[in-house]
Specification:
Strand content: 15-25%
Radius of gyration: 20 Å
Bound molecules: 6-O-phosphono-alpha-D-fructofuranose
Amino acid sequence: MEKHASGAHLKRISLTRYLVEEQREHGTIPGELRLLLEVVARACKSVSNNVNKGALAGILGSAGTGNVQGETQQKLDIIANEVLLDANEWGGHLAAMASEEMDSFYEIPNRYPHGEYLLLFDPLDGSSNIDVNVSIGTIFSVLKKPLQSGNVCENDFLQPGVKQVAAGYAIYGPQTTMVLTVGNGVHSFTLDREAGSFVLTQQDIRIPEDTKEFAINMSNMRHWDAPVKRYIDECLQGKEGVRGKDFNMRWIASMVADVHRILCRGGIFMYPWDKREPDKPGKLRLLYEANPMSFLVEQAGGAATNGRQRILEVTPTALHQRVSVVLGSKNEVERVTKYHLDAQ
Ligand code: P6P
């Protein structure tokens, strides 16, 4: 099959056919993993249908509960979480699941067969955008359950991001698109609502190594560490400054949407440590936000660090631990990381 970045000449093939042919050609997607990815895709289609109903189904607004992060849960957060749990618990491909919306992990009930994979997800990322109709998404990461451990325990999930066997997200925007990697490049599949299936629309996505676009919440500027201030100040100085070029800024406050834009046209995304909560390394969660996005970004030729080291090499110590995130166009991420290391 001829590969064209634009997807313009791609023969329209379904996600299932892509996964089958990828296994046949590269052996990277054994049957149980293919089943997992197809089930996650079907669940994301259901989440998309719920998101698209919005007020019509009375599912906007707060659920009146809080998650382990201390954040107010939106009704759709809980619906999306339940859709993913219900879709994945019976298939026999998983040993357990972990979610941003659940304090502890969810072991597959004994009435179902247990598989070798662990599925971690943020069921609906960007919740603050739900009620204002701005793109949101589902982020997921797949690990293998360690062989030596008997019953599932939290430590089974605490694997560095380099151990991921697959990662991806679904973005619920003008199109519903799933972006996926199994370690052999990054590919996107757009939901064909008439056919009811995800169709391959872009293969081997590559992030330009340079960019003129940064994404950060500028309202936090007074709280940033010096290396972040230095980098953003230089961007703001534009062509008269040391960078010799003008920069543009975007901040959607939905990681899935900001990362999708970076995969489409380059850019740098930053959610760094700041002194509002000095004992926390950042806002974003390592296992089910930063790790899957970092796997995708690296597979697309970009880079992802916590300001000092590859995010994928951070050894997790807790299921919901947070991490500083600097990811996107390789040369910009390396610059920001250098500023942090120089400041040590
Ligand atoms: P802020 C959404 O709540 C999220 O976890 C990410 O999707 C997003 O990048 C970030 O938080 C936005 O944070 O502080 O700008 O609202």
